# Entry
Amino acid sequence: MKQTKTTELLVGVFIVAGVAALFVLAMKVSNLSSFSQADGYTLTAHFENVGGLKVRSPVTVGGVRVGRVARIDYDSGRFEAVVTLELDSKYDQFPDDTSASIFTSGLLGEQYIALEPGGGEDLLTDGSEIEMTQSALVLEKLVGKFLFNKAAEGDQSAEGEE
Amino acid sequence: MLEWIRQLGRGGFGFFEKLGRSNLFLLKTLAGIPSVLRRPYLLIAQLLSVGVLSLLLIAVSGLFVGMVLALQGYNTLVDFGAEESLGVVVALSIVRELGPVVTALLFAGRAGSALTAEIGLMKATEQLSGMEMMAVDPIHRVIAPRFLAGVLSMPLLAAIFSAVGIYGGYFVGVGLLGVDDGSFWSQMQSKVDLNEDVYNGVIKSVVFGVVVSWIAVFEGYDTVPTSEGVSRSTTRTVVYSAFAVLGLDFVLTALMFGDY
# Structure
């Protein structure tokens, strides 16, 4: 009888340890505790170019994460990308002239959307669109422009010396 | 030449015959599970030998795997000045891959081989036929509890492996190598997704648990009832389990993470 009781106790401890480990993985390792997508509202924004933005990229205001990118589609009428943002319902006080820009965190980091609240009276509600957007900076375009300008300057100075 | 082709055909027949037998055997075992639930003490005894006694091995292996990952990952990441991402590297590799796979391989070696040897020896000493003589179905009494214990233990062991491994990585990364404590966890939390990574890891471990337990009890039940047969079956359990786990891991990974 005693033998079975110890057995039962050990098996109980084993099951508790296993479930606790799962719980640790869910709460401590993954992002369940920091952000839940259960209740939120969505906004859309058109961008000329979304660069390396991905679904689930963060949406921030002043560096604080307030939501995630829910979907990225292509609007064939406007030849632009449509990004659907899913914001936490805690943060629903954005004026309707809020602007959205795509930035990169660090030099090689991932891209995210930064919202900058404007000063309008009306608030953005579920499903409304952010009118003012700034596309992602594409590094190749910047480098190309820089080189082009440099080359143009070089030509001018060479002409001036002659 | 003709003889050689005929031998190949015989081998093929043997293979499919065994596959068919193992499938029928699995169905019978699954049908025996309700009777196990009516006698939970059988299950608890098996959970002890299959799960609890594997616990130390799994925990120690997990600790060392996490520590090695942290050490190796740090050496590479520090070149890019990205050592804060160490938590992500350790957590993703353990939760997605190493946790389920290494646990399943260890489980096959520790518990699967023991199951095969035990059941095979029962068959060799005609205990199984003895049970049948007493109108006790050995599948209900012997096989189903062991199978169910294996299926239940594997996910729990894999979860323990993953959690201990991540703390092993934390110990080496933060304690010894001086990675920042806060960014280790926060980067991990922002990159590891509950559905995408943790649940898929759990699904993998459940699948591996079913496969390894199935192979182990089938090889035991199907053994040639001699001492040599039992030894061969035990070897086959470990070899087949390793093949099945690694092959299935590729298939599952392709299905789960291969959509981009």
Q: What stands out?
A: The interface with chain A takes residues 41, 44-45, 47-48, 51-52, 55, 91, 95, 153, 155-157, 159-160, 162-164, 166, 185, 188-194, 197-198, 201-202 of chain B (CB under 8 Å). Residues 2-257 of chain B form one domain.
